[in-house]
Amino acid sequence: MKKEALFKITYGLFVLSTRDGEKDNGCIINTAMQVTDTPLQIAIAVNKNNYTLEMIEKSGVFNVSILSESTPFSVFQNFGFKSGRTEDKFTAFENKKRAQNGVYYITEYTNALISAKVVKTLDCGTHMMLIGEVTEAEILSDNPSVTYDYYFKNIKPKPESKKTGYVCKICGYVYEGEPLPDDFICPWCKHPASDFEKLS
Ligand code: FE
């Protein structure tokens, strides 16, 4: 079996956000899709380690901000490479507004906002799948949606090839040195040493 075949599936990139009590939080996800038209429902899949997921399970509402090709790497760093458990991702982030559900969405670099309330959850092991009924949907710009492939080719900084070390295939973090410890965990995206490859 060639597991890499699954890399051929196309994905977008999104900021998934929620608000629980007075706390706002968000993260980057690559899975969001429309599942039905009547009622209008979307599905998302989120890693269980994600604090945003824990908050959505309490609040029952979420926003999906669809990122466009104009999104700078700093947005992925802000929402994707830190944890909302220890850092506040929204206070210093300027390009935001509250949707009708009170949850922040991203107003810059995005082309659409979709708000939803959770109607079903499915435990998939490492991830939870959430089905949400759409409560608000707005178009924010005509910029093309960014794909995961476009992000890797055009937005994620390329590691410098002169260094000796290992690069995280998930987020691009570079570990300098030799060898990479077996129990190493990526400080940005928390993936294990098996998701690193040697710099060539
Ligand atoms: Fe990583």
Descriptive notes:
- The chain is built from three helices and twelve strands; from the N terminus they run ββββαβαββββαβββ.
- It is mostly beta strands.
- The chain has a seven-stranded antiparallel β-sheet with strand order 2-1-5-8-9-4-3. A three-stranded antiparallel β-sheet has the order 11-10-12, with no helix packed on it.
- The mean pLDDT is 93.
- Bound molecules: fe (iii) ion (FE).
Associated small molecules: fe (iii) ion
- Strand count: 12
Provide the helix percentage.
10-25%
Order of helices and strands: EEEEHEHEEEEHEEE
> Shape from CA axes?
globular
Share in β-strands: 35-45%
Task: Kindly provide the radius of gyration, computed on alpha-carbon positions and rounded to a whole number of angstroms.
Answer: 17 Å
What is the typical, i.e. mean, pLDDT? 93
Please give the count of helices: 3
Descriptors:
38% strand; binds fe (iii) ion; 12 strands; 12% helix; 200 residues; mainly beta; three-stranded antiparallel β-sheet
